[in-house]
């Protein structure tokens, strides 16, 4: 119907869009992927992934190259589009890279099927993944893995902490990686050839952490050599733990390194951008100065050493978003305000300045006028308006 040339052009576009939405609901294929030329996106995939993933250039590069091989039509059509084992300490970007792949390849970061393998620690766990056989309890529910992929065949499937799974579960993985399909408890064949399989593991993470701590104060050839040696020790641990037939079927094993101080700052800045977007939906502007980020990073430093970048988000939520939320309840901040977060002189506390949006825009115009007047004799300085309100937060709640 979408190809008919008679009738109004507007109706044709509407029916095409509606048809795309219907097919997307039926198949789980994002509308943007139906007939879309991916050539440019594939060529720019490393840069696109780095919009969400800070650092990890080697990991991003390896994954992007493997995906390009598969999407170019040169991969095995009877296997998943890619299968990876992501290795490294917690909070370094393993899950974030999986989300980035779902977003860039399938149009939505929510097309990530995530399964916590710490919940599949005995042989009976296989039934939970593929569903019960006919006539047994729970038969009508289907498998937790097979049902998700049956309705979302274009997705990234993430098996988190895979080293904790029972040995029987790995037989399921072998079937997926070998044949690109899985038969569920009801005898239905579920297609995995359009999925990307990602397994994560913390095996050997202590080797990477030790090498990172030894070279934390400086980076030179010796520290890079230590990092390379640590990577080999990680891979050796993996070889000892996992069955050779699983390792040999993976597209790549990817080792993630601990994040540097500068990379952690970039993670914090990325989190701030997300917070600013949330506040913008409420008509509230947000700017967090670098000095304020330093305060947040200092407060979360102990947890960051143990858990990677994840505590940064919690600290920002607690120290920035929670306090802004309280100011909203107190009616200090409303939908016409701009909040600037800075550090005090001792760089130990956060200072919140609340401006009316109109005042902030006028101050920006005044600053531009002042800059212009310095190079033009005819220019006149405009007096800046003071902030509508000023609030200093001293207590560390």
TrEMBL record:
Every AAA+ ATPase domain range: 80-241
Q: Name one GO cellular component term.
A: cytoplasm
GO terms of biological process kind: cellular response to heat
What are the record keywords, sorted?
Answer: ATP-binding, Chaperone, Nucleotide-binding
Q: Which residues cross the membrane?
A: none
**What spans are recorded as compositionally biased (Low complexity)?**
365-378
Query: What region holds the Clp ATPase C-terminal domain?
Result: 259-352
Q: Which GO terms describe its molecular function?
A: ATP binding; ATP hydrolysis activity
Q: Where is this region: Disordered?
A: 363-386
Q: Does the keyword Nucleotide-binding apply?
A: yes
Write down a Pfam family by its short name: AAA_2
Q: What is this protein called?
A: Clp ATPase C-terminal domain-containing protein
Which organism's genome codes for this protein? Oryza meridionalis
């Amino acid at each position: 119907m979408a190809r008919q040339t008679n009738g109004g052009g507007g109706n044709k576009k509407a029916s095409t869009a509606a048809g795309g939405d219907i097919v997307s609901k039926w198949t789980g294929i994002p509308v943007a992927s139906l007939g879309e030329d991916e050539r440019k996106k594939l060529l720019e995939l490393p840069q696109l992934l780095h919009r969400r993933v800070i650092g990890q250039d080697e990991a991003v590069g390896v994954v992007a190259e493997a995906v390009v091989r598969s999407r170019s039509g040169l991969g095995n059509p009877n296997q998943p589009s890619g299968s990876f084992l992501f290795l490294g300490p917690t909070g370094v970007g393993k899950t974030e890279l999986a989300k980035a792949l779902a977003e860039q390849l399938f149009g939505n970061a929510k097309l990530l099927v995530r399964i916590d393998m710490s919940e599949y620690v005995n042989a009976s766990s296989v039934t939970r993944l593929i569903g019960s056989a006919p006539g047994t309890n729970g038969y009508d529910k289907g498998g937790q893995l097979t049902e998700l992929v049956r309705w979302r065949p274009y997705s990234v499937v993430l098996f988190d902490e895979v080293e904790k799974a029972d040995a029987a579960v790995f037989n399921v993985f072998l079937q997926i990686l070998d044949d690109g399909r899985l038969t569920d408890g009801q005898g239905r064949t579920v297609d995995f050839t359009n999925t990307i399989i990602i397994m994560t593991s913390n095996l050997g993470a202590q080797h990477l952490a030790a090498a990172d701590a030894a070279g934390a104060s400086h980076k030179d050839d010796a520290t890079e050599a230590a990092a390379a040696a640590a990577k080999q020790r990680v891979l050796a641990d993996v070889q000892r733990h996992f069955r050779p037939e699983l390792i040999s079927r993976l597209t790549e094993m990817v080792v993630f390194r601990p994040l540097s101080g500068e990379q952690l700052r970039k993670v914090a800045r990325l989190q701030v951008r997300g917070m600013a977007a949330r506040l913008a939906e409420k008509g509230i502007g947000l700017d967090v100065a670098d000095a304020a980020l330093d305060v947040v990073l200092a407060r979360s430093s102990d947890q960051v050493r143990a858990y990677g970048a994840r505590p940064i988000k919690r600290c920002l939520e607690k120290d920035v978003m929670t306090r802004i939320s309280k100011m909203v309840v107190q009616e200090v901040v409303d939908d016409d305000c701009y909040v600037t977060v800075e550090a005090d002189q001792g760089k130990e506390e956060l200072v919140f300045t609340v401006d009316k949006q109109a005042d902030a825009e006028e101050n920006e115009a005044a600053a531009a006028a002042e800059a212009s007047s310095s190079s033009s004799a005819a220019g006149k300085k405009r007096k800046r308006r003071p902030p509508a309100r000023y609030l200093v937060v001293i207590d560390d709640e």
